[in-house]
Amino acid sequence: MSGPIEFYFEFSSPYGYFAAQKIDQIAEDNGRTCIWKPFLLGGVYKTTGMAPLTDQPLRGEYAMKDWPRLGRYMDVPWKMPEVFPVHTVAAARAFYWINERDLDQARLFAKSLFQACFGEGRDISTPQAVADIAASLFVDKDELLVALQDQAVKDKLRDETDKAIEKGVFGSPFFIVDGEGFWGSDRLWMVKKWLQSGGW
Amino acid sequence: MSGPIEFYFEFSSPYGYFAAQKIDQIAEDNGRTCIWKPFLLGGVYKTTGMAPLTDQPLRGEYAMKDWPRLGRYMDVPWKMPEVFPVHTVAAARAFYWINERDLDQARLFAKSLFQACFGEGRDISTPQAVADIAASLFVDKDELLVALQDQAVKDKLRDETDKAIEKGVFGSPFFIVDGEGFWGSDRLWMVKKWLQSGGW
Fold first, then answer.
1. Which of B141, B136, B138, B147 is closest to B100 using CA atoms?
2. Distance linking the first and last C-alpha atoms of chain A
3. Cα separation of A49 and B57, whole Å?
4. What are A23-44's pLDDT values in tens digits?
5. Residue A170, CB-side half-sphere exposure with 13 Å CA sphere
6. Cα separations (Å) of B178 from A109, B2, B195?
7. How many other CB atoms are there within 10 angstroms of residue A135's CB atom?
């Protein structure tokens, strides 16, 4: 099979940030394309009953150590944003709005958001912050700010989150390859093996 | 540093079972010893508010697919026990009782329990089942059955579970190497890298 890799992630997810550094190259190395699909973990938590990592006793403390450790290991910049989890409704809505116009620009935009949020610890929670980042990629800022209030744009993100849940996505990052789901940046090695071997 | 690897696990944990196939070899390859430390996830859940994987929507369904997939990938026998999660109080108490007498025998016993539970899908929840497995390793069955009711034996498991929580253990398997914690059988690659490089 040679369908695209679906890369589900939440812009507020550090593990999504780390996976975002690798997934396109893994796809390319194996002759696949990769579709980036942000969703809202908040919507997923309503189904799963889970809570943000940093709200979980012990697990949250582990994560706070694990993220900088992963950053050092991968040689990727890491800076924890002051407010966490990050409110990412504007970011994810903006992504899909740009994505309908230009897939490559949308992907660059997603990478810029992640870089701002976890590479530099900047606040990406407001429409203004999101639009500033988009503007640096030659997106029309005023048009985007209007679009973020558009019901169709709101519905698009809601639909994508619902569809992710229907496909069994319960965390970020989550990869679907040939119908097979893989959860976690920990599992990129397994995604690679799956692509190389065609499954087992 | 060259201290032992601490291997924390719950006998009811499939990911603990998979990690148990690998961890001793990883320790040996890196000139380390490994200390096996079963604990009760039920005790940990009281602190973390987590629930057994199979009780979690979406995540439970993923796990039910992931376990046989891991078994096939690792070429390790896999059979889901009929009753899950498994009640492992007797198993873990028996482990520590044997462990105080003979470390090697206790480790063999732990491996036999895992093999019975997830390799063959057998019920290991009762004192009788646990004692039968111990007896096959030349442990005195009657003596063990009496010991399982001993308050000191009960306290030992409770203490070990409390100590695990104090060390930040929130899931199974969990590894501590040179004071550094690693969660999940997914992270064995990182434990290896840490041992090889002395950290980063």
1. B147
2. 13
3. 8
4. 999 999 999 999 999 999 999 9
5. 18
6. 40, 8, 9
7. 13
| Three-class SS state of A141 | helix
Are A59 and B69 inside 8 Å of each other by CB?
Answer: no
CA distance B175 to B184: 8
A166: nearest CA partner in chain B? B58
Nearest to B181 among A62, A169, A183 (CB): A62
Enclosing H/E stretch for B36 = strand B34-38
Sheet of A174-177: strand order equals: A34-38, A5-9, A174-177, A180-183
DSSP state of B113: H
> What are B55-86's pLDDT values in tens digits?
999 999 999 999 999 999 999 999 999 999 99
CB pairs under 8 A between A and B: 71
Taking alpha carbons only, the member of A139, A154, A116, A147 closest to residue A40 is A154
Alpha-carbon distance values, B156 to A141, B20, B39, B97, B146 (Å): 63, 22, 10, 9, 15
- In this prediction, the answer to ipTM > 0.95 reads no
